[in-house]
Specification:
- With 428 residues, the protein is mostly helical.
- It has one domain (6-148, 224-389).
- 56% of the residues lie in helices and 4% in strands.
- The protein contains 20 helices and 5 strands.
- A hairpin with a 3-residue loop joins strand 3 (189-191) and strand 4.
- It is globular and about 65 Å long.
Length: 428
């Protein structure tokens, strides 16, 4: 493919910087966040009254001006031009969404940006709701006392902080990302480009050390820092709605392939999708909250509140207009896992490592390959061990491409007598 001329590369670089400025003025999670005092008031009133968050709509004009200026520079035909034009479209939709917080239109824009529980993914025949319902059904038994899989030991935020800070030094050059304990978070944990924050009053399982390292540090922080090394296309360093599905899917896959995910984590992700579907069909905040109390967090009312908050934030607490972002964890996992299985067939590890050059969507890969071939983007400097040493990943994916063809129904039928004995308690 013909290389970009210096003049054309300069135009595309300037467009990328303009789009970075436009996106930076549209802080999605910051705009729709709830102050922790809303939860305090909710519980003080007996968990019976609807929360009433107040939002400040974002003025889209500065961002839209930059998008218009960027579009004037993106004048050509190539995968890179297509990628940047999609970024323009995404930024305009994000501006519309943040200008409509607290209304039904907010949710409509969210579905356009993130998809929703019933949006077709992967092969075009399945949805995140399909996987969520399947996982919820299969894993619900693991919440019973008789099938307890986790140790009783729970880590405090400060204990987790110490464990993570030690491990981060093994993967990141100086300055190593900081782990901060704070009482200002609603979520148990969150990450930025060079930090991970933990909520001070939260407790964590033994697997959370690995899970947060893999998910937050070695995917979200790593792709941000890798993307920041690209002087021509700095938008590769930024999280935004158009890359959320791939980034969260890659992060959950990292948990999966490193052995850091467990039934409760998988079920928690599934319940978020089910709850979004409920809200789309009209369930209000109180109904969603009760759903989470009854599904996995019955003994943790604040965590149930947090889960319900994630579903309705930015939209309508009365129901019918949720924030659909949390459907991307499962949809993205299926998309990334399917892509990786397909990539194995081409026997080129580059197609796996390029996922870490920055924050990208799988739809952008043709542009990323083109830029990499022309030496216009940097190889990833920080990657998780499973992506640097591909021996286990390639072995697992090669095996799974065949195993997916096995008829599980026929296998279950073969052993149905054994399973029946176990269910009836007659196996002794």
């Amino acid at each position: 493919m013909t290389a970009f001329s210096p003049a054309e590369l300069d135009k595309l670089t300037r467009a990328s910087h303009l789009l970075l400025e436009a996106e930076d003025r549209l802080p999605v999670l910051g705009t729709i966040g709830w102050d922790k005092s809303i939860a305090v008031e909710f519980f003080a009133r007996g968990e019976k009254e609807m929360p009433r968050p107040v939002y400040t709509p974002v003025d889209p004009a500065p961002s839209l001006e930059r998008v218009q200026a960027a579009r004037a520079l993106i004048d050509g035909t190539s995968p890179v031009h297509d990628w940047l034009n999609r970024f323009c479209d995404m930024t305009q939709t994000t501006a519309g969404m943040l200008g409509a917080v607290g209304t039904k239109a907010f949710s409509d824009h969210a579905v356009t940006l993130y998809g929703g529980p019933t949006t077709p993914i992967a092969d075009g025949n399945h949805t995140s709701l399909d996987l969520a319902l399947r996982l919820d059904g299969l894993l619900s038994d693991f919440d019973t006392v008789s099938l307890q899989l986790e140790p009783d030991e729970k880590l405090t935020a400060h204990e987790l902080q110490a464990a993570m800070q030690t491990q981060l030094k093994d993967h990141f050059p100086a300055p190593v990302p900081e782990v901060i304990v704070t009482d200002s978070l609603s979520a148990k944990a969150t990450a930025g480009r060079n930090y991970i924050k933990l909520r001070e009053d939260a407790h964590f399982s033994d697997l959370d050390v690995i899970q947060l390292l893999q998910h937050e540090a070695l995917v979200h922080i790593a792709t941000a820092q890798n993307g920041a090394r690209n002087r021509h296309f700095p938008i590769l360093a930024e999280s935004h709605p158009a890359n959320a599905r791939t980034q969260e899917g890659l992060a959950v896959f990292a948990e999966f392939i490193s052995g850091a995910i467990d039934p409760r984590r998988f079920r928690r992700l599934s319940n978020r999708v089910i709850a979004i579907d409920m809200a789309q069909k009209g369930a209000d905040f109180l109904e969603v909250y009760r759903f989470f109390r009854e599904h996995g967090v019955s003994d943790q009312p604040f965590e149930a509140f947090e889960s319900a908050r994630r579903v309705v934030r930015g939209g309508l607490v009365e129901g019918g207009a949720p924030f659909t972002k949390d459907s991307v964890y499962l949809s993205g996992l299926m998309e990334v896992h399917s892509y990786l299985r397909a990539a194995v067939a081409h026997a080129d590890p580059r197609f796996i490592r390029l996922l870490f050059v920055g924050k990208l969507d799988l739809q952008d890969l043709d542009a990323i390959v083109m830029l990499h071939d022309q030496g216009l983007i940097e190889d990833p400097a920080i990657m998780p061990p499973w992506a640097k040493d591909l021996r286990y990943l390639l072995s697992y994916l090669s095996y799974s491409t065949f195993f997916a063809n096995i008829d599980l129904g026929a296998v279950s039928k073969r052993y149905e007598q054994v399973f029946a004995m176990s269910a009836s308690g007659s196996g002794a």
